[in-house]
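Reading a protein record of the kind used here takes only a little practice. The integers have meaning only within a learned vocabulary of local backbone shapes. With that in mind, consider the following protein and its fold in token form:
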Amino acid sequence: MDDVDPDLERWLTQREVEVLKRIAMGQSAKEIAQKLKIAPRTVERHIGRVRLKTRTRNRSHMVAYALSKGLIGCTLTFSFYVEAPLPIF
């Protein structure tokens, strides 16, 4: 991504960015830990550090901030699915 905020890119580690992307996909700390083969508490520490570095209030704010700064793209694959079609009103 060429339009990434250079300060944000410099402040976050590769692991923090990976965790942030997985948070944006809707994964829980436990799910992220299983995928990355690290402890769930380590994932929570990464999330806490990203929130401090980005000065965001919660996970939703953190993801919105990262999207606005170009750190993560909008072409994420979400980790949930719908079993039945949703009704149209």
